[in-house]
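Bit of a strange request maybe. I'm writing a small parser for structure token strings and I need a real example to test against, not something I typed by hand. Could someone generate the tokens for this chain?
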Amino acid sequence: MLLQDLKIGNKLLLINLIAASISMMMLVICIAIIAFHSNRTNLIHDLNAEAHILSENLTASLAFNDTKSAQTLLEALRWSPHIKQVVILDNQGILFSKYPSNSTLALNEADTLSNYLSGVSIQQPIKIGKQEVGRIQMNATLDHVYSQLQKFLLLTMFSMLLAGTLGAFMIRRLQKYLTKPIIGLTKSMRLVSSTDNYALRFNLESKDELGELATGFNTMLSTIQSHEAELDSELALRMQAENRLQQLAYYDEVTKLPNRHHFNERMAKVVASSVENKVLCCIMVIDLDDFKIVNDTLGHHVGDDLLFAVGERLSHDLRLEDILCRIGGDEFALILDNLPSIKHAQHVAQKIIRLMALPFILEDREVFIGASIGISFCPNDATSIPVLLRNADTAMYNAKKLGKNYCQMYLPEMEAKNIRRFALESALHRALDNKELFLHYQPQIDINTNQVTGFEALLRWNNPELGLISPVDFIPLAEDIGLIIPIGEFVLYQACLQSQQWRERYQIDTAMSVNLSGRQLIQTNIVERIISIVNSTRLPSHLVTIELTESILMDHSKETLSKLEKLSASGFTISIDDFGTGYSSMSYLKRYPIDILKIDRSFVSDLPDDANDVAITQAIIALGKNLGMKLVAEGVETEAQLAFLKMHHCDTAQGYLHSRPIPANEAEHYLIALSEAKHDVAIEKNLI
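Reply from user aminoacidic:
Good idea to test on real output. This should exercise your parser:
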């Protein structure tokens, strides 16, 4: 009704003023809402970033239940004006720490409009690796947002009043110039609100209030767009990090092949398909021969290059459906799915062996290696992945025993050997403590006088569960696992102690021969250990014979020579056991301080009928005599053998003809006889 009484100019003025005012108010409200939402979103983003940083620093405190350090970290938040409260919960949901420490605990606030307008609350898990160890909740106020919004509204209202005053003057002439930009700005605002496209801009070449409003609107959109771009960038970086973690989790860093984790997942699918569809598949474990030599001589970087080259060479010659993985060290695993026959797997294995035999060119030099391969089939051998992998490993180790560049399929009897070896190894670790090891003594007889000149100490093992175990079975095992060192010291001590007891009891000096293993000899302090052990028994060192094999003398020759010279200088006798069966290099006979050669039983067993054994034995005796060494023949079992040895001037015989290895109490009979013989000789001398 009011407009009906006004003139058209005033009516237009009033209408324009009212319309402009309404439009401006709507624009301000929308901008205020957008600014509030944007600032609140930015605040949430900042809180998430602060919570993420804080959670990384709190992992150690939660892991070690260190509430004091956690509280110290939280106290640093007092410099953040917008944070109202921080609450740390452990993985049981129990309060671990909070800030401020005297604040009332407020958790899980309802998502209502009132809470939306009054503050911000975020929660994040605290993780160590993939395991969640707690949660963090941060509450913040919107005071700063409202303060900025209030200033913005006051400025906007002031601008509106100024614009209204000027508008009243200008509208009469510039009605079209005023209404058009307002409508355009309103449309732009609505378009931004409806599409969330903050790249839109409202172009208005004007320096009045509408121009400033348009510029402010565009500035606000630019700010929002910038924050959105930062968020997109952070999401892209997070995606890259996730992809990197995925790569590390499923692929080997050196070869770029799938790793053991990927292998297990893939194998689970292949085995399940094999069992369900009743088709053949296999696991093939490929171990590189001589890889350690490459690593030790050329360096680990060349070793890594070699592993990468092996992976590439194998990958190029496989079917697309075959899966090649590196499962650790110099071991690769190959999954062959849907095999037509067992022979196909054997054909693939032989192809791999041929490929590995070709040279690799690394740093302008040719590198040669080989491959030992073990194969286990599903469902023929097993349907369990760990069992299949263990079977393939077992077959691979058997392939290594057969020589390099060899392929071996799993056989059940291999498992039985491994089980027995495992049982022996476990029992051997306890044998010394349980006093299951003991010594037998085999007499060494002077061929001319038929009197005992010494004994060889031979180790025996009687286990309550496994029974009497042959030295052939447990001595090599002790060498492999390093137990030969304490066992060897036990044998040396017991043998020397027994010899000293006999010496004190019967007043007779007899030599005691003790075998020394290669593992013992390579110890840097072996000479000192031997001297210390023998001295602890009070047995003179000249009554102790250290027996070595030929192969030991060929390894570490300089170090071995130095150690043997020290032992010889200390009075010990050095004997070469099983002479003629090892390297048989004559050069070490003149270099090393050797006192005794023991002729191996393999040459004595067919004397005097086998012409070759006759020739070899005669040559060894002649060699020893010419070098001033004593000769001991092992394995003498017949009178004919003894007669031949006596005729060719061999010094000492050792074998079943005189005695098997016997316990100490039985060995004493030889000493008693020797003592009585010496006593009779002494009486005869006195009578004369």
